[in-house]
Amino acid sequence: MEIKVSTLSENTALHGYIGEYGLSLFVEADGKRILFDTGLSFSAYHNAQIMGIDLTSIDCIVLSHGHLDHTGGLAETLHRIGRETEVIAHPDVFEPRYALRDGQTQERFIGMPCSKEELENHGARFTLSKEPVHITRYIMTTGEIPMLTEYEKVESNLLVKAGEKFTPDKIADDLSLIINTEFGLVVFTGCGHRGIVNILNHARKLTASNSIYAVIGGIHLFRASEERIQMTIAEFRTRGVNKLGVCHCTGFYASAKIAEAFPKEFFLNNAGNHFALP
Predict the structure, then answer these.
(1) Tens digits of per-residue pLDDT, 37-85?
(2) Per the confidence metrics, is the pTM higher than 0.90?
(3) Which of 181, 165, 184, 258 is nearest to 219 (CA)?
(4) Burial class (CB in 10 A: 0-12, 13-18, 19+), 211
(5) The dihedral of CA 124, 99, 268, 137: what is its sign?
(6) Burial tier of 7 (Cβ tally within 10 Å: 0-12, 13-18, 19+)
(7) Strand order through the sheet with 177-181
(8) Secondary structure, 3-state, 88-129
(9) Comparing C-alpha atoms, which of 53, 95, 55 is closest to residue 79?
(10) What is the number of other CB atoms lying within 10 angstroms of the CB of residue 109?
(11) CA 196 – CA 164 distance, rounded (Å)
């Protein structure tokens, strides 16, 4: 199986493209065209036009989780598609999300900018499931990720609001996309808030495959401890990962450490990137 990946939106961009904090990937595999996340605003659609990608041809949209930088472009994308489109996500994707940044005293809204009803009016047909969703025999979402490692934690400054009360956000809706190929698993992550090692272990369990060929996307290590970064690197090494196209929330320091450990496997996955696997 050949997998084609086009990075439509990411914090940084190749010449001629727009960089915007967030993520959106266009994935072609097993006869399907899948949009994985939609970026923060208009960058995904804008860059798709430059790359010659017709988003009206997509079969479905998968949302990794309900943060603004992964869902902010959804309404515009649906409007541009102009027809009913399946949107696969976890039921908690519409939770009211907030963040309290270092040095700030006011929580800032970072959740889905549109309601379910508004998005349905734009053509969204939601498939909301805590369990894995099979798109084809070989392509599936992870569903909810069990948190089993001791060193992978959701950041304490991420919150949900119920009434006037803020509580820690477990980000239960954090999910990834798996493609099970003859050369190993290809795992696409949005932010991987629940831990990339937890994600990879869950992907292996779901598919009964021990081989991880590629990890593409954000893996949320920009505030991680040195111990967590090193244990993540050790897991990549144990699994024999061949391609590491990390980006977005991975962070410069963690990315540099991963690049140092995997000089042949690592690449920066900027907006405008287009590549095929294997």
Answers:
(1) 999 999 999 999 999 999 999 999 999 999 999 999 999 999 999 999 9
(2) yes
(3) 258
(4) middle
(5) negative
(6) buried
(7) 139-141, 177-181, 184-189, 212-218, 243-247
(8) EECHHHHCCEEECCCCCCCCEECECCCCHHHHHHCCEEEEEC
(9) 55
(10) 12
(11) 32
CATH class of 3-277: alpha beta
Answer yes or no: are the C-beta atoms of 269 and 48 closer than 8 Å. Answer: no
First to last CA, the chain: 8
Task: Calculate ∠ Cα 144-147-151, nearest 5°.
Answer: 145
Residue 173 has, within 13 A of its CA and on its CB side, a CA count of 25
Backbone angles phi and psi of 195, in degrees to 5: 105, 125
87-143 pLDDT, tens digit each: 999 999 999 999 998 777 799 999 999 999 999 999 999 999 999 999 999 999 999
Residue 195 burial class via C-beta count within 10 angstroms: exposed 0-12, middle 13-18, buried 19 and up: buried
Separation CA 66–CA 199 (nearest Å): 17
Share of the chain above pLDDT 70, in %: 100
- Alpha-carbon gap, residue 270 to 114, rounded angstroms: 27
Instruction: Give the CA distances from residue 176 to residues 37, 38, 53, 163, in Å, rounded to whole numbers and listed in that order.
Output: 10, 14, 23, 30
Cα distances (angstroms) measured from residue 214 to each of 92, 137, 241, 267: 27, 19, 6, 11
Residue 218's beta-bridge partner residues?
247
Cis, peptide link before residue 278, omega less than 30° from 0: yes
